[in-house]
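Journal club prep — side note

Before the paper discussion, L.F. wants everyone to see what a predicted structure for a comparable chain looks like in token form. Sequence:
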Amino acid sequence: MSLQIRIGDNSEQGPRKNNEDVIGSVMPEGDQVIAKGICIAIADGVGGSSNGYEAASMTIKSLLSDYYATPDTWSVQTALEKVIHGVNSWVHTHSVKQKYQSSLATTLSTLVLKGGRYVIAHVGDTRIYLLRKNKFKLLTTDHVWDRPEMTHVLTRAVGLEKSLIVDFCDGEIFKGDKFIMLSDGVWGVVSENDIKKLLSEQEEPSVIAEQLTQLSIHNGGLDNASVAVVVIDNLGENSFIEEQSIARNLPVPGKLKKGDKIDDFKIEENLHDSRKNRLFKVNNGKNQFFVLKTPQPYLGNNSENSNALINEEWLAKRIVSPFFPQVHSVGLDKRHYLYYLMTWHEGATLQERINLGHFFSINGAIKIGTQIAQGLSTLHRLNIIHRDIKPDNIHQGSDQQIRILDLGVALNSEVTLPTSMANPGTPSFMAPELFNGEQASVQSDLYALGVTLYYVLTRKYPYGEIEAFQTPNFGKIIPPTRYRPEIPEWLNNIIIKAISREKESRFETSEEMLLAFEYKDRRPVSIQKISLLDQARFEKWQLGAILSIFLNILLIYFLLIT
């Protein structure tokens, strides 16, 4: 069941020459309401002229259109924050360009209802209250100067400054909840007791909105008066909960072999077996091939594993990029078993090529590194951290296209991972901070990319191979030029920067790393130079031991000749 609400709003000009308040809302249907929720916003333009309305109108229109254009993989807060900062920058720039006019600025209070929760983004002195079981609570804070001589002077507003700090709060929603959004032209002249009383006694949101605006004018209000009321009639199901409950009822396929059929697909080949999942090449009967991913039979209908597979499919569906296999959509209602399908590509993983003795040229490694970085850039823009970049998960097609595989442990704010996946990954490719319990990040993905390039070029690991459950010792890096002297210095520097022990010393973003690949030796990245002794992998105690042996031999020589 989708979220069901009622919205009513009203805005009165009052004694002002212009109405500079704007209210807007979007109530999408179907998958959109599940993915993005319902958005309601109120803005009170600042300026005392038509500029105030222009700022409020631009802000509301941009917010409502841009919010629904953000990726589904972004959390509500992330989406609102990026959109509001973008709107603030646009309004502020527009204001600066029109120097002959008074500045454009507006307050903004936004309410998003999604599934069983609400998220509020707020700046200025418009307000949002919640009435729940006769308890009336203010959910926002007024951003005004708290001084007698500076009443209602805003300290924060959209367009007021080049940078903007937005307040966020969130919480659970319940059937019967009533949210009310007010401009200061209402809450400034109507008491909270009167607002609460009207909300409690009246059920029709449009009637509440109209009566409150009229009451504010009757009470002598000198400002525009605007009200939006939201009543929660039924809660919506979280899309993951719905999909996972269906998935848990689908049986895991038994042992499959070439020639077997699963729904409309015929097994052509067993591609890969891991501890938890199996990959098969399948044919749909029309000579079209796909990769089918399904859990191992011995796991049965383990809810944790089933949810992980559904989460992985949900993420993969939202990545439209040549650097990833694309999901072939088969509705859960059309499946009789637990699995999902993705496009099949002729080729092999980098690890398979290495195992077959393939030698990667410098130019080949550069192309691989560039394409992996492009793929990671796509992921990171979607707020997804891969967490298991390694040669086994990098596929190189016969068309030489690199594709990143396996989102099974990918991190995203919209996906709830099992506790057993707190910090997964392959130890030799995991960044040092992950062993200290830090959460995976863009920098840890780029570290894994650096180790992958190092390994592809040298067949070795920069800090030695790390076994599972081992406490690694991240010593000094052996530069890849030690094993491949023909590696150009600029590429050597890119790899060393990517695999730095300290997160702060690595590339900040995938785009920064891509620029380094693009500029090559025209603008090489700078790194701390590694001494010849470090390149020779001599520790201080080893150097001391060698010196001591040399001095002893010299002493024996002098004793013998005397």
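L.F.'s comment for the group: The first helix runs from residue 31 to 35. Keep this in mind when we get to the figures.
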